[in-house]
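Protein in question filed below.

…
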Amino acid sequence: MMKFSFLLFLFVSFSFSQTKNEKEERVAPSDFPAMARNHFNGIADEVNYLKFYKETDGNKLSYEAKFKYKRTYYSVEFDSLGKLEDIEVLVKKKDIPKTTLKKIYDYYDKKFLKVRFIKIQKQYVNTTKRSDKQFIDFILQKPNNRYTHFEIIAEIKTKKHHELRELTFDRHGNFEKSRIVTSSSYEHALY
């Protein structure tokens, strides 16, 4: 009985760790980590719709600034202390290089019966020696070829399931990870 309980615990733990169950709420700028909020002081007049959010996913707390800059939608995520985690830019299928898109479609064709893209983002992670502020400014000025990943929310269909999934691919279209998007995180996932 002990072995069965342990296996059940592992299965349940693995299942939950593979689900995107984020809760997002808008916060006042004063409730956003000051270190992160200060990164937007120089561009606040140049962006549209600058809004601040607090996001929880199980035990993880993060903060996100969302805005539109030069006709492009950005989402900049920070940890609870205000350290940059990533920058995401909303894009369309046509913005993915053809060879990369083909590789992504090849993955979908092997795994699923049907796929419909709902949201595509280029993701930028600072692997440079630039400070968080310098990296944000750099991406805002030259966002085209510096991305590290693609994050795709898609409606997928298998023989047994019909669900929303968030799939992450590297810049070359190689699959990295997948998780189910729950209905509670669906609404804010669309931006």
